[in-house]
Amino acid sequence: MGDCLQSSGLTRLRVTFDKTAKVTFAEIVIASGCEGFDKRAIKAAKGIKFKPAVKNGEPVTVVKSVEYIFQKY
User: Fold this and answer.
1) Alpha-carbon distance 28 to 19, whole Å?
2) What is the full per-residue pLDDT of the chain (73 aa) written as tens digits?
3) Which residue in 22, 35, 42, 43 is deepest, having the highest Cβ count within 10 Å?
4) 32 in Cβ contact with 71 (< 8 Å)
5) Domain segments of the chain as ranges
């Protein structure tokens, strides 16, 4: 994470969790101010493993807010 001068940051994403158990879209809602943090947040979100939400017994697509907090040590 040596690509910015910040020692920490928060990236908030809007993530689409598809009914097929795949993340189909992730976009930045609030950027951390560090491009490296933001790119890592999107990559992490796209790798989320989950079971789809269910409504009336059927899997459904949902959109959720996901936050990543970064701290350099």
Assistant:
1) 21
2) 456 888 999 999 999 999 999 999 999 999 999 999 999 999 999 999 999 999 999 999 999 999 999 998 8
3) 42
4) no
5) 8-21+31-71
pTM for the model stands at 0.88
Report d(CA 64, CA 71) in Å as an integer: 23
What is the SS3 assignment for the chain? CCCCCCCEEEEEEEEEECCCCCEEEEEEEECCCCHHHHHHHHHHHHCCCCCCEEECCEEECEEEEEEEEEECC
Contact 15, 21 (CB under 8 A): no
Q: In angstroms, rounded to a whole number, what is the distance separating the alpha carbons of residues 23 and 46?
A: 5
CB 12 within 8 A of CB 30: yes
Are 10 and 32 in contact, with CB atoms under 8 Å apart?
A: yes
Tokens representing 40? 């890592």
